[in-house]
Amino acid sequence: MKIGANYQGEGRCEFTVWAPFRREVAVRVVSPDKRPIPMQRDEGGYWKATAEGIDPGTLYFYKLDGEANRPDPASHSQPNGPHEASEVVDHSQMKWTDAGWSGVPLEEMIIYELHTGTFTPEGTFEAIISRLAELRDLGVNAIEIMPIAQFPGDRNWGYDGTYPYAVQNSYGGPQGLKQLVDAAHQRGISIILDVVYNHFGPEGNYTGQYGPYMTEKYNTPWGWAMNFDDAHSPEVRNYFIENALYWFDRYHIDALRLDAVHAMYDLGAKHFLQELADRVAALSESVGRKLYLIAESDLNDVRVIHEKEFCGYGMDAQWIDDFHHCLHTLLTGEQLGYYQDYGQCQQLGKAYKESFVYSWTYSPHRQRYHGSDASDRPGQQFVICAQNHDQVGNRMLGDRLANLVSFEALKLAAGALLLSPNIPLLFMGEEYGEESPFLYFVSHTDPDLCQAVREGRKKEFAAFHLEGEYIDPESRETFEKSKLKWGKREEGKHKTLREFYQHLIQLRRTIPALQKLDKQNLEASAIEGEKILFLHRWNGESQIYCIMNFNAKEVTVKHQHPSGNWHKILDSSDTKWMGSEPTLPDQLEPDGKLTVKRHSFALYQQ
Question: Can you tell me whether residue 406 is helix, strand or coil?
């Protein structure tokens, strides 16, 4: 069921809204001012009206039971914010130039996560376009945009959106997003959109006045859960499935990243995610190009990515925290919160080989067994990172890895990430060692809500990341501090680090052993006491061997490498990369001793 205001051309618009318990619903056009347009109810609780004389840009509310004027829950645009009138959008006005676009295959993606408001000084979609060429030059071919559904105010991470169909007005609205997608496709870059189907934001959410979008059967970190399996759930499922199809169809989005699917509760025989995957697969077939669904899940549950024939939900890939946590603890030594479960080289080796470090093994932090076995799943089903918005922004000071570890360790992190058999994700600015924090920020208009957010964040930090002074998320200064200092990418060590990332991406693209995301043709082993990890990958006759030292000091170890002639093609401690001088040999000798610089790695090719 198509919902919202669907403009049909020549001043004709069809309005559809689900309000099963309302006695009367009408379209209240406020600009230009018109008499209410009565709507007719069908047996499913949908109210419909087709009106003439409705032009693009028309502002409207729904009048409920002759009293309250409320925005459209499926509004395509909220030009004046979440409490004001919805706007009719003519999606045919966009002149697309990407007719020949077929998308970037999942297994080839180098993903770059960004926040629209802080990626550029302007904080708009249009401003991102000016940086696409530089990202492409770096090697990025997929951009993941943090949520852009309409939220209150002009600054927010995006997870407080209350209108899943409406593009944030302060970013450039519907037309701005379409122009960004079109420009990205012209440069060979896919667009991944982060969407939130597990909760609505707290301000401007009027869905409860329309119908039972939520259920008290389950609790989430944000309150009641979305109603995916309770009474009247088919219409709620339709609301979000249509939203996913809307982004693919109207905006030419290439993939959706589904936020925190572990907070989407559904005990029905066909999980919401499985139904969503089926519908997206049908649309993919129709448009002739593969459209992807990438889930964020902390369950380490292989069912999320298993095919439905194996009782899975059919997601194409999922974010995985284990890799980040292994890498972060090895580089920083932190052991607070969930980091207490990590810190060993052999765990990072398991992350390379099996993806899930916790695969029905005991988790000290959770104090229970956790996870399932994903060792048979291909590497392209896992998105990994050294940093992302959550792992940086949920620290009290929003400090990036560049603020926590040495320059040598930043290069080691880059190598560990980009030499992996998974899909790498870079967090904006990571490639040049951005040092500006990425803090949590909001701009709610309700003073009581502002105070609740402050108290909630303080409570969260009480048990995790205790260092530093609490920073007010409502302050504009907090938002301004989080903007990238983009010019640094051409200076000193920042320029060198960017070139290092660029070189690693090029190696990943051109060496067959790195191209194929195959965990079966891979071995990883560790010398735990010395914090040394060895990674061996192969594809046919192509082989690579990587030696990584996560120790804060130089170490000498004796190790027998795989047979063959191994020639060094990259050493992070080389002076070319602002290192002190390499100690590892250009050729590996059988049964030889290896002296490895602290926080360094070397890559050998057979």
Answer: coil
Q: Count CB atoms within 10 A of the CB of residue 93.
A: 11
Query: Residue 466: is its pLDDT beyond 80?
Result: no
Catalytic residue numbers? 259, 296
Supply angle C-alpha 569, 574, 576, rounded to 5.
95
Q: CA-CA distance, 323 to 413, in Å (whole number)?
A: 11
The alpha-helical segments, DSSP class H, found in 41-167 are 116-119, 125-129, 132-138
Q: Judge whether residue 464 has pLDDT over 60.
A: no
Question: Distances from the Cα of 238 to the Cαs of 46, 97, 256, 307, 372, in angstroms?
Answer: 12, 30, 17, 22, 31
**Is the distance from CB of 426 to CB of 110 less than 8 angstroms?**
yes
DSSP state of 492: H
CA angle 573, 558, 584 (to 5 degrees): 20
| pLDDT tens by residue, 202-218 | 899 999 999 999 999 99
In angstroms, the CA 109 to CA 319 distance is: 14
Residue 85 and residue 60 in contact, taking contact as beta carbons nearer than 8 Å: yes
Q: Read off the tokens for 573.
A: 């401690």
Nearest alpha-carbon partner for 384 in 421, 436, 330: 421
pTM of the model: 0.97
| CA 294 from centroid of its chain's CA atoms | 8
Distance CA 401, CA 399 (A): 7
CB 146 within 8 A of CB 389: yes
Please count the CA atoms within 13 angstroms of the CA of 556 that sit on its side-chain side.
Answer: 5
List all residues 6 or more positions away from 485 whose beta carbon is below 8 Å from its beta carbon: 434, 435, 436
Rounded to the nearest angstrom, the gap between the alpha carbon of residue 29 and the centroid of all alpha carbons in its chain is 37
Q: Exposed, middle or buried: residue 567 (CB in 10 Å: 0-12, 13-18, 19+)? A: exposed
pLDDT tens-digit profile of 143-193?
A: 999 999 999 999 999 999 999 999 999 999 999 999 999 999 999 999 999
Closest by CA to 193, choosing from 239, 245, 124, 255, is 255
Positive/negative CA dihedral, 392, 333, 535, 434: positive
> Sign (positive/negative) of CA torsion 406, 408, 411, 413?
negative
One-letter identity of residue 144: E
Q: State the DSSP code for 33.
A: B
Beta carbons of 265 and 228 less than 8 angstroms apart: yes
Interatomic CA distance for residues 595 and 211, integer angstroms: 66
Beta strand 223-226 with 214-220 is antiparallel
Rounded to whole angstroms, the Cα distance separating 326 from 349 reads 9
CB-CB neighbours of 364 under 10 Å: 9
What is the predicted pLDDT for the residue at 467? 60
538 strand-pairing partners: 543
542-549 and 37-38 strand pairing? unpaired
Mean pLDDT, the chain, whole residue set: 95
Q: What is the DSSP letter of 403?
A: G
Close Cβ partners of 146 (under 8 Å, ≥ 6 residues apart):
113, 114, 115, 116, 157, 158, 194, 389
